[in-house]
Amino acid sequence: MMHDTIINQQVIDTDRVVLRPLRKSDQGRIDHYASDEALARMTTAIPHPLPPGATEAFIARAHSEDRIADVWAIDGTQDNAEELIGVISLDRVDEGKSEIGYWVAPPYWNTGIASEAVRALIAANPLNSHVMFASVFQDNPASARVLTNCGFQYLGDAEIFSVARGAPVPTWTYSLKLN
Q1: Which candidate, 13, 159, 164, places its Cα nearest to that of 75?
Q2: pLDDT in tens, 78-118
């Protein structure tokens, strides 16, 4: 029987979703959505095809005491949606600086869920960041709109490797000053 580890991480409520620490029981939903090539190609780290054990390792890293990122499930049950409809994270970049990353399951694309989750994480600011950064692939303007609608400012162009694409991909980088 799999038991969930208690993670010292803030739970954040919004009108439609709850951002909560990942649970081992989220593995099936993450496997299901992360296996979608369209989703994987819009991320840096999700491989396609998704190898066995990848999600289990991801959840284990999220539960690690020495993790470099806090990861939340975007839980839609309070709006009669699925228990896991996406994932959002904050990576510790440097003192007072963090980088936000997120993905939303394809059935929930263009529903405002990503914007709601990003706004909630900014408002909660659980790592007490002075600046948050984010980057999106240039062929994903919807994610760029999420960031700009949440107050992020364009910083510049860059490139980052996408595991699913097996190649570097041009990105737009954004920042948001807090406090």
Answers
A1: 13
A2: 999 999 999 999 999 999 999 999 999 999 999 999 999 99
The answer to whether 174 and 158 are in contact (CB under 8 A) is no
Phi first, then psi, for residue 140 (nearest 5°) are -130, 65
Nearest to 16 by CA among 170, 137, 119, 103: 119
Domains (ranges, CATH) in the chain?
12-128 (3.40.630.30)
What is the identity of the amino acid at 159?
A: E
CB 95 within 8 A of CB 128: no
Which residues lie across from 91 on neighbouring strands?
69, 99
Q: Given CA atoms 126, 129, 131, 133 in this order, what sign does their dihedral have?
A: negative
